[in-house]
């Protein structure tokens, strides 16, 4: 930790797109739920439709068209488009940006008198465009970066993206939305070890 | 006789045997045919009461045996106990992993706040403030569903 007198304040923001679909059941979970479904079925009274409905009152059930839901794996999954927010719907996707040839979380400086969480939000919008519906998770930082230089303190904030997309500007050459397991391919070892327990 | 009445002795017996299918000794056809002492068979068959054809359906619905449905066999108590224990072990492992993840996140959070308090007391006070219109959950933060929206992610200007 840098001393109070000399330290400069910087922010880093961990922007996450939360899962949009429920996690896939493991084989054991699926088997367990099926076992209990069968157990319930064997102890329940079967429904006798004629008891509840007069003959002919149900109508033409064959004419009802059930809605077809969307697929859980999308085109972005098959193409493995790391810029897409429709990829890996059951996992968290984190924003990493390429600044000066190096991949990292979105970083920025803190202005005079500016609260940390506002600086974090502002730096994301400046560097990744205004087309981001961000929600900052509270006001407190979630971590202090262990890879910061001696004369600076980098506070990490967490934000959710609710809509929109990143459009790199101002020194940012590239971006990607990656899962926790893919993060190691983008960040260098020191940066990854610093961030992995926050994901 | 009330249809909801269950003798206490019968209830206790059922509670002690959770793995056996609940059965009754009465079948639809035998209900109402138990000869009471000295009573003659009532006028009219058990197929109708006052011409109501739902009576046999009612008897079937309430009293028919449900010992085996579609060939589902009754499960052995040991097998059931093993399955439940395996599930508990799996859940315990998941809970332990979740706890470890949360503990690590809390340690980093605490480190950050302790440092901030020493480095910048004003910003620390702002960070600790629990009030403010920015501190509500957004409407668009929805719970995950089994299948995604057909419209996909809202890229807005995209």
UniProtKB/TrEMBL annotation, chain A:
Keyword field: Mitochondrion, Ribonucleoprotein, Ribosomal protein, Transit peptide
The organism's place on the tree of life at top rank: Eukaryota
Record-annotated Nudix hydrolase domain positions: 94-194
Primary subcellular site in the record, as a coarse category: mitochondrion
Boundaries of every Large ribosomal subunit protein mL46 N-terminal domain copy: 8-61
Localization (cell): Mitochondrion
A Gene Ontology term for the protein's cellular component: mitochondrial large ribosomal subunit
GO molecular function, one term: structural constituent of ribosome
Similarity remark: Belongs to the mitochondrion-specific ribosomal protein mL46 family.
Official protein name in the record: Large ribosomal subunit protein mL46
Species this chain originates from: Allomyces macrogynus (strain ATCC 38327)
Organism taxonomic ancestry: Eukaryota, Fungi, Fungi incertae sedis, Blastocladiomycota, Blastocladiomycetes
UniProtKB/TrEMBL annotation, chain B:
Pfam families: MRP-L28 (PF09812)
Region (Disordered): 26-47
Keywords associated with the record: Mitochondrion, Ribonucleoprotein, Ribosomal protein, Transit peptide
Domain of life: Eukaryota
Compositional bias per record (Low complexity), positions renumbered to this chain: 32-47
The keyword Ribosomal protein is assigned to this record: yes
Presence of the UniProt keyword Ribonucleoprotein in the record: yes
Intracellular or extracellular location(s): Mitochondrion
Single GO MF annotation: structural constituent of ribosome
A single Gene Ontology CC term: mitochondrion
GO terms classed as biological process: mitochondrial translation
Protein family per UniProt: Belongs to the mitochondrion-specific ribosomal protein mL40 family.
Protein name: Large ribosomal subunit protein mL40
Source species taxonomy: Eukaryota, Fungi, Fungi incertae sedis, Blastocladiomycota, Blastocladiomycetes
């Amino acid at each position: 930790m840098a001393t109070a007198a000399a330290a400069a304040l910087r922010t880093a923001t961990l922007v996450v797109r939360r899962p949009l679909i429920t996690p896939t059941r493991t084989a054991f979970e699926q088997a367990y739920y099926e076992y209990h479904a069968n157990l319930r079925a064997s102890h329940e009274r079967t429904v006798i439709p004629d008891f509840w409905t007069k003959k002919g009152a149900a109508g033409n059930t064959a004419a009802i068209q059930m809605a077809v839901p969307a697929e859980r794996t999308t085109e972005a999954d098959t193409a493995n488009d790391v810029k897409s927010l429709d990829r890996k719907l059951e996992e968290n996707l984190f924003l990493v940006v390429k600044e000066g040839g190096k991949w990292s979380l979105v970083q920025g400086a803190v202005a005079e008198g500016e609260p940390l969480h506002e600086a974090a939000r502002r730096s994301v919008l400046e560097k990744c465009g205004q087309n981001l519906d961000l929600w900052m998770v509270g006001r407190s930082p979630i971590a202090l970066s262990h890879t910061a230089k001696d004369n600076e303190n980098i506070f990490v904030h967490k934000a959710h993206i609710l809509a929109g997309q990143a459009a790199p500007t101002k020194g940012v050459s590239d971006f990607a939305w990656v899962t926790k397991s893919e993060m190691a391919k983008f960040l260098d070892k020191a940066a990854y070890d610093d961030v992995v327990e926050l994901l | 006789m009330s249809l909801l009445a269950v003798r206490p002795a019968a209830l206790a017996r059922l509670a002690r045997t959770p793995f056996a299918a609940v059965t009754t000794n009465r079948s639809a056809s035998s209900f109402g045919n138990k000869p009471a002492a000295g009573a003659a068979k009532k006028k009219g068959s058990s197929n109708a009461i006052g011409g109501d054809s739902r009576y046999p359906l009612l008897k079937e619905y309430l009293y028919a045996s449900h010992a085996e449905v579609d060939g589902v066999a009754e499960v052995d108590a040991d097998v059931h106990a093993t399955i439940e224990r395996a599930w508990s072990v799996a859940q315990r492992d998941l809970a332990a992993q979740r706890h470890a993840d949360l503990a690590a996140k809390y340690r980093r959070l605490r480190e950050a706040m302790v440092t901030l308090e020493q480095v910048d007391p004003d910003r620390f006070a702002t960070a600790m403030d629990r009030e403010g219109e920015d501190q509500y959950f957004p409407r668009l933060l929805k719970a995950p569903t089994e299948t995604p929206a057909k419209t996909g992610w809202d890229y807005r200007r995209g």
